[in-house]
Amino acid sequence: MYRHGRGYECRAGPPRGIPLDIPIVHVLLVKTSSLGDLIHTLPAVTDAVAACPGLTFDWVAERPFVEIPAWHPAVRQVFASDLRNWRHHPFARATREARAQFRAALQGTHHDFALDAQGLLKSAWIARQAGVPIAGPDWNSAREGLASRFYARRYPVPSRLTTHAIERLRRLFAQVFEYPLPVTAPDAGLDRGRFPVPGWPRPYVLLLHATSWATKRWPDAHWMRLAQWLDEHGFDALLPWGGAAERETAERIADDGHAHVLPRQSLTELGGWLAHARAFVGVDTGLSHLGAALATPGVTLYGPTLPHLTGALGGYQIQLADPIAQTVDRNRRMDISVARATDALERLLRDTP
Fold first, then answer.
1. Dist CA 247 CA 131 (whole Å)
2. What is the DSSP letter of 48?
3. Using CA atoms, how far apart are residues 222 and 42, in angstroms rounded to an integer?
4. Would you give the distance in Å from CA 321 to the centre of its chain?
5. Which of the listed residues 60, 147, 188, 320 has the most CB atoms within 10 Å of its CB?
């Protein structure tokens, strides 16, 4: 039980196996992927440490995303999971040794309990490796209900079909640590000053074109017309990329000379480009959520997904979507016109500092 000056108690309770007679100070948080999902979790961490002074988190994330949790001041250390690779060769000696080292690292660090914020069987398995009691969403709330069977304490959260992901996580954390749900806007707890300042000579706008869903993509020709519009209005259009296919797309968009393809960047370096951009335009992808969390003015384009469920939340954000779309539909393609995007961007550039 953790009592403090606000007149309420911050604790984890009352889960079977999680003691209530000691302060809850060190928690292992399991939220392994994806980039956007990790960004969505940061405001809940901010809420928890504001309500519970002295609370710290260790965080398990997939190796490509380990930079993200370390950006939050309440995260003490980050454990890298290679579960995707382990599943390809589960019985190989190297895999067994890597799993054993991972388990030893988790169990070699004191945690009062683990919080599985992913709600999947794989994340429940990861949490169990720590050898401490686990809290998480209940059967009806977890992405995979069976995962809740591994939790000592289970909590109901609103459906992902009706409630934004950030709101669901904030509600989960508020129940786990028993503090009133904050009514403030989400705060990812990111310090823009910690990100490197790019040495780019002119004002620039980032075009975040890359996404894993084909139906989330905006046509290359639309990006090219947007880049031309930016060039005509005195801004450089910059194109980041991750894998080889994303680089090829960026090079196609930049082929007419109105945009610039950036070199490959780490996530922290990309955070710097976003933090110091005049604005960004992006599809529903992790970097758009990072830009919003950094309060960089942004226009985000939605096709198969819905802004009220996974919208990029933060200061100075405009979300463009099909006004009649009511459900997530992976087959619904992006249908935002260039004119609509440039109108939104023009308003944003005019109305933000």
1. 42
2. H
3. 32
4. 20
5. 60
Same domain (yes/no): 126, 217: no
pLDDT at 158: 96
Rounded Cα gap, residues 167 and 161, in angstroms? 12
Whether residues 257 and 137 share a domain: the answer is no
β-pairing, 153-155 vs 134-137, is parallel
Domain that holds residue 12: 2-177
Q: DSSP characters for 238-298?
A: EE---SHHHHHHHHHHGGGSSEEEPPP--HHHHHHHHHT-SEEEEESSHHHHHHHHTT--E
- Alpha carbons 275 and 294: distance in angstroms, whole number: 6
Residue 343 contacts by C-beta under 8 Å, 6 or more apart in sequence?
none
Kindly state whether residues 7 and 110 are assigned to the same domain.
Answer: yes
Give Cα separations from 299 to 240, 282, 312, 349 (angstroms): 16, 6, 9, 10
Mean pLDDT of 295-307: 96
Domain identity same for 231 and 318: yes
Is there a single domain that holds both residue 153 and residue 258? no
60's tokens: 């398990």
2, 23 contact by CB (below 8 A) = yes
Give the pLDDT confidence of 54-87 residue by residue, as tens digits.
Answer: 899 999 999 999 999 999 999 999 999 999 899 8
Tokens of 324: 């009649």
Distance CA 313, CA 210 (A): 19
pLDDT digits (tens, 9 = 90+) for 259-288: 999 999 999 999 999 999 999 999 999 999
Would you say residue 78 lies in a domain? yes
User: Residue 345 and residue 206: Cα distance in Å, rounded?
Assistant: 12
Indicate if 285 and 312 belong to the same structural domain: yes
Q: How would residue 9 be classed by pLDDT, with cut points 50, 70 and 90?
A: low
The answer to the question of residue 183 being in a domain is: no
pTM > 0.90: yes
